[in-house]
Amino acid sequence: MLIDDLSTPALLVDLNRLTDNIERMQAKAVDQGVALRPHAKTHKSPDIARRQRDAGAMGLTVATVDEAEQFVEAGFTDITIAYPMVGRHMHERIRALRTRATIRFCVDTLEGIAQAAAAYTADDPVEVLLEIDTGHGRCGTAHNSDATVSCARHVIEASSLRLAGVLTHAGQGYSGPQNGETPEEALRRASHQETRRILHAAARIYEEATPQVPKDAFIVSIGSTPTMRFFENAEHEGLRITEIRPGNYVFYDAMQQSLGVCPLDHCALTVYTQVVSRHRAPNGTEKVFLDAGKKVMTTDTGPRTTGFGVPLYNAAYMREHPHAQITNLSEEHGWMQVPGGATMGVGDRLRVVPNHACVTVATQPVLYAVDRDEVMDTWPVLQRQAQAT
Asked: In the prediction, which pLDDT does 387 show?
């Protein structure tokens, strides 16, 4: 089947670029002496996760219990839920999963630790990772705060929990340059900040709380595709980074390209869309409307993105259209402007690199694996499951 036989909008995954991206990140992990535990929330695809595993990845990272359940059902047995787990229902589902797989999850508050401690038993303690905030300002105890050691002690003192290590997500890597930095300098800063701060926090936990896990088995886990661009492992007081959890690297997207993480021709995911309407404005600008709106391409933007995705005029070589810009999205429409007139007419099709691949994938039921213009396979995307209350 050819891509022209597909209904639009559709998500296309270039097989050659996907394979190259997987192999490059795996080589990075080997070179730095760390395990690669890719974050599967980006692709939500067992088919892609198997390709990562076959290339050498050690387990998976997920964001939700839904994802954990469905990846276990697909045959994956070593999963980290990189999210603070709270609530009786969540822990009941995790307990059920632990009969079939190794499951660990994050904690970052005394309340969350207490809830987890009450949900498991000393006969079968569950592994948890203490989430550390190394600068993103989202979840996690501050890397240099007393709360970090206090939380670690509470985990260690709970007989039903086992402090397996620490975890961070340096989301500040998405913030872009600051104070006159170049994009490269910004990525280096965020990467070094992530590594240095998580290692110092881990060492302090060891000094003041003394986990039962030996230092060489203590997990020190970092993530974020942008910070992997310049990641270099390091050692501090006998501790090293043990695993990395990038996710977006399988596809990359317009955000990653604009941040300087990758060139456009590394982007493996495109939105396949067609022109449904076209009108000329009084100033001569052509207004072209696509059948992919915010329900497909997402309104997410980054500090250096322009518009809502990158329209391509040559998908084989990933050449950006020199004039077209997607300036707005409504639910089912992409609003594209082309100064001076468009070469595409109603019914014509084109590919767009979305700003944020992770959100784009989560909106669609399938991915189409393609080699140039030929559809080679169809990969289901995990869907959110309804849970009885």
From this structure: 65
Q: Output Rg (C-alpha) for the chain, integer angstroms.
A: 22
Rounded-to-integer distance, Cα 343 and Cα 311, Å: 13
Q: Give backbone dihedrals phi and psi of 132, rounded to 5 degrees, phi first.
A: -115, 135
HSE of 70, CA atoms in CB hemisphere, 13 A: 20
- Alpha-carbon distance of 242 to 249, in angstroms, equals 19
Task: Round to whole Å and give the CA distance between 358 and 185.
Answer: 25
- Backbone dihedral angles phi then psi of residue 311, each to the nearest 5 degrees: -70, 140
DSSP class per residue in 125-184: PEEEEEEEESSS-SSSEETTSHHHHHHHHHHHH-TTEEEEEEE---GGGGS---TT--HH
Cβ–Cβ < 8 Å for 163, 130: yes
Contact between 112 and 86 under an 8 Å Cβ cutoff? The reply is: yes
* Distance in angstroms (rounded) separating the CA atoms of residues 339 and 111: 56
Q: For residue range 188-219, list pLDDT tens digits in order.
A: 999 999 999 999 999 999 999 999 899 999 99
Q: What does DSSP say about strands 219-223 and 243-245: parallel, antiparallel, or unpaired?
A: parallel
Q: What phi-psi label fits residue 105: left (phi over 0), alpha (psi between -120 and 50 degrees) or beta?
A: beta
List, as one string, the DSSP characters of 287-345.
Answer: EEEES--HHHH-S---TT--SSSEEEEETTTTEEPSS-EEEEE-SS-EEEEETT--S--
User: Which ranges of 39-159 does DSSP label H, i.e. alpha helix?
Assistant: 46-55, 65-73, 88-97, 110-119, 146-157
First-to-last C-alpha distance (Å) of the chain: 43
The C-alpha atoms of residue 341 and residue 323 are separated, in whole angstroms, by 9
Angstrom distance (rounded) from CA 302 to CA 356:
9
Other CB atoms within 10 Å distance of the CB of residue 47: 16
pLDDT digits (tens, 9 = 90+) for 43-58: 999 999 999 999 999 9
Mean predicted confidence (pLDDT) in 265-278 = 98
Q: Is the pLDDT of residue 340 over 90?
A: no
